[in-house]
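Worked Example 4.2. Read the sequence first, then its structure tokens.
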Amino acid sequence: MRPCPRCQRPVVYMTPQCPHCGNVFAGPGAASHDAGMRMLLPVGRTGLSMAAGYVGLGALLIFPLAPVAIVLGVLAVRDIQRRPGTHGMGRAIFAIVVGALVSLVVAAVLIT
């Protein structure tokens, strides 16, 4: 954690932007804008998008998680759209797609 230079509230070290006041950081925090860094660390991702991604992955093995993955994915997309500068859209879309596909497969198996 480090303090934001503008509002002095604590912010996670590699976060590119203060979630409290919106200040964009320069220096060490600016490295998190790099796509490679975002792939390695959960920098700037919303909690909902991370949860949606993991639940989507879990839905591949535990079928009842599929509807939960869809709901979390939709909530994550809405959260990301409301908060510019955050990331995680890929995880949210992954959760929606996997949840929908698993639900369709389970429905097809149950019908036949």
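Now turn to a second chain, presented in exactly the same format:
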Amino acid sequence: MNKNWLLVFIIGLMASCNTDVGNFEIGQDLVESGSKIVMIDSFAVNLSTVLVDSLATSDPTSALVGKYSNPKIGTTELRHYFNVDLASDYASITEFEDVFDSITVKFNYSGFSIGDTITPVTFSLHRLTDELDLLTDANNLDYLYNTSSFSYDETPLGSYTIVPSPSNDSIEFKLDPALGEEIINWLWNTESINLNNDNFLTLLKGFVMTVSSDDDVILGFDNSNEDDIQLKLYTHVVDLTITENTYEFNKTTEGTSFNQSIADRSNTPFSGLKVQSEALPSDSTGNISYIQGTTGVLSRLDFPSIEKIFTLEDRVLIKAEIKLPAASENNYSDLPSSLNFYATNRFNDFSTSNVLSVTSSSGTTVSVSATLVSNYLTNEYYYVADITDYLQSELSDDTYDTNHGLFVGFTSTNIYNQAQLLILNAGSAKNQKPTLNLYFLEYE
């Protein structure tokens, strides 16, 4: 029987059956007598860690602020930069009538956290001394990156200490009153023709939110909508009665807010993560690899022995399943429910547009997901995914480019909007290393 014809036939058969090979049967009236399914798990899987040089984090849906330390990977600090537009009702601030009361900034919790959430944490807001300017990439698109930075006044405009419990849904802390007076005076003394966002951003270039050096937590704040982060100016007017006014300055529509990542991996196995083109193999990092959102750290999978498939006579690959064990260093209750794969090359180029995907029978394209499997009895936690289409495509011309590989990371949304951490195991024991299970149809 022609092997190529048989491959097409089997793929069609699988599409009409359960994709779990162990759950379907091949009848004698469908294929040649003597055919059977065999599984081989001896193909090597190499796991390494890669640092993407610059990850675009501008206009994220979550503002990330904090500092988190892990003995295996080091310390990660995140800062959020943003600026605000003029309040829509700024013209209502009447000269010599509005009396300044206070100025604050409000943030709404997104629900994301990593680290110690039962110890008080102190946030500080600083005033930028440089304007936030977007950078244009090779595709003529404008971004700011996790490696971008802008100078700011070291003296904070205000600080706020809280215990970040789930019962908190927002924080609002007071800023230096001098800033409020400065804004009001600018509105009173600027000609109406010059009262616009461009000139306002020249006056108030923006802010950066940080935490104190002793804190060990990263929190997320909503940043999807323009009013999720607000600068609020409170005044009152004395007439026959006292009228209290609130002027809200929303996040600018220019998309210049972004999350900055600062990592200290010194004195860890990952201190060599510096250049994107150089991956750190797991055997040089204590047999682990890791993934972390916003920081640009991804794990890479390579299949150095996959070409051996071409030496297998009378066998056709019908399913490829990858298993990735989570290391014991993880907080198992915080493990993400799924992971995505991204095709890459020898330069470790990364783009979310290269996400591994398949087309369903209805014609819908969906990402290939590695799903978390939890065995509470044996304390095993691992991710499993079907990468059949990927390997069949890579092998389709009877050759395999060993420069090709797969990045393992969070979903394309969470890569930019969360700082979740996942450590993968790459040990030598059977249940502590990545495993590629290949299912073949063996025929006579």
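Notes for the reader: Residues 1-31 have pLDDT under 50 and may be disordered. Residues 62-263 form one domain.
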